[in-house]
């Protein structure tokens, strides 16, 4: 059984936010005509500056059109995207979450499918943007009333949705997407990134439950929430925040948060004290979340061979198919992720770090996989198309 979502559910619920009432100020009224697709303004969100400071040069290739396998996208859309726009996590009781909505929006842009993007964004806006700010409630359960029982957010979902909106604004020239992206990005920068601690900035996994004030071993972070390819794009929406510095802090953590004989990061990492360590109360494992770290490094086109080394070493020594979930203290596998889509991650990482051509299976998504491996496979395909055409034999 795929236990990734269940593990994340337990890990993400150290505390729930009290329900906030939706707010909209005078600025929302002024922008209503231009932002029919955008979410309500969170209290105090500054308007987009008329002449915003120029962001750092954005060398990222375009996401739009990066998913060239139209058949793979149609199959994915048919299996996981409802008519209403809800992205369904098929291995976790059919729930939906902000991560899945963000991934679905990104893939829709990559496939050039504006209609599906609109449906996913509309459902997200109506069902997950129910807090008193511009962040998203992280989990929606179809068999519960209310379907959103925990108003806490998950910062990776917030980042993914904001990034997708930036890409959509560029792809389709819609100012409403740009305004919505800015609202979310501003609240990420204000509420979730610790910029002013005298230390490198940190991305909290959620607004509640992870800070030094809330945990004895806090702050606690999750390295897979550093969605590296998103940060230079968020700088276009909210240039007043130092997203490049956040990228650098994540790169440093990839090198320093290495534990046990395999030198792998755990899912949840305590940054209390001088050195990172596995966080208290969570399995000390390299698992479902952390396998995304090299995906995001490769997609952003950043990092050195040293950043990829422990992942490539682990995946290069496999004695069976699939990816291992590793007990970092002992350096031994405790579970295997055996669906074929997971294999796209080692292939992309080896391409990015060593220029290794991807195998033929990389370009052939399987039709019967669950949401998570199927999604990772399409994301890896888009990343390779954007940055590593040579590994694809092109």
From TrEMBL:
- EC number of the protein: 3.2.1.4
Under the heading Pfam families, the entry gives:
Glyco_hydro_8 (PF01270)
The signal peptide stretch is 1-38
Highest rank taxon of the organism = Bacteria
What is the reaction catalyzed?
A: Endohydrolysis of (1->4)-beta-D-glucosidic linkages in cellulose, lichenin and cereal beta-D-glucans
Task: State the residue spans of region: Disordered.
Answer: 38-57
**What keywords would UniProt list here?**
Carbohydrate metabolism, Cellulose degradation, Glycosidase, Hydrolase, Polysaccharide degradation, Signal
**EC category name:** hydrolase
> What family does the database annotate?
Belongs to the glycosyl hydrolase 8 (cellulase D) family.
- The name this protein goes by in its record: cellulase
């Amino acid at each position: 059984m795929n236990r990734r979502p269940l593990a994340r559910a337990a890990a993400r619920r150290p505390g729930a936010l009290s329900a906030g009432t939706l707010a909209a100020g005078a600025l929302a009224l002024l922008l209503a005509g231009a932002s029919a697709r955008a979410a309500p303004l969170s209290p105090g969100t500054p308007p987009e500056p008329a002449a915003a400071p120029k962001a750092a040069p954005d060398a990222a290739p375009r996401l739009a059109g990066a998913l060239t396998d139209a058949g793979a996208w149609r199959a994915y859309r048919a299996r996981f995207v409802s008519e209403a726009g809800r992205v369904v996590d098929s291995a976790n009781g059919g729930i939906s979450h902000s991560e899945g909505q963000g991934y679905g929006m990104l893939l829709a842009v990559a496939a050039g499918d504006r209609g599906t993007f609109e449906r996913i964004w509309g459902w997200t806006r109506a069902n997950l943007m129910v807090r008193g700010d511009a962040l998203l409630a992280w989990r929606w359960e179809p068999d519960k009333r209310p379907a959103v029982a925990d108003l806490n957010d998950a910062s990776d979902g917030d980042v993914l949705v904001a990034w997708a909106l930036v890409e959509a604004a560029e792809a389709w020239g819609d100012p409403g997407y740009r305004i919505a992206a800015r609202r979310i990005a501003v609240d990420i920068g204000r509420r979730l990134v610790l910029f002013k601690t005298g230390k490198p900035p940190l991305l909290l996994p959620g607004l509640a439950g992870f800070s030094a004030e809330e945990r004895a071993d806090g702050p606690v972070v999750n390295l897979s929430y550093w969605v590296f390819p998103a940060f230079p794009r968020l700088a276009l929406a909210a240039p007043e925040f130092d997203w490049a510095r956040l990228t650098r802090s994540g790169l440093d953590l990839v090198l320093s948060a290495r534990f046990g004989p395999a030198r792998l990061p755990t899912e949840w990492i305590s940054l209390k004290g001088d050195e990172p360590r596995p966080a208290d109360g969570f399995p000390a494992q390299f698992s479902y979340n952390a396998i995304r770290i090299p995906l995001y490094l490769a997609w952003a086109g950043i990092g050195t061979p040293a950043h990829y080394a422990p992942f490539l070493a682990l995946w290069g020594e496999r004695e069976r198919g699939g990816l291992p979930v590793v007990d970092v203290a002992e350096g031994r596998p405790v579970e295997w992720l055996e669906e074929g889509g997971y294999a796209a991650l080692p292939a992309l990482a080896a391409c990015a770090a060593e220029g290794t051509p991807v195998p033929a299976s990389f370009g052939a998504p399987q039709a019967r996989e669950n949401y998570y491996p199927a999604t990772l496979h399409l994301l890896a395909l888009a990343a390779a198309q954007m940055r590593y055409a040579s590994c694809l034999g092109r």
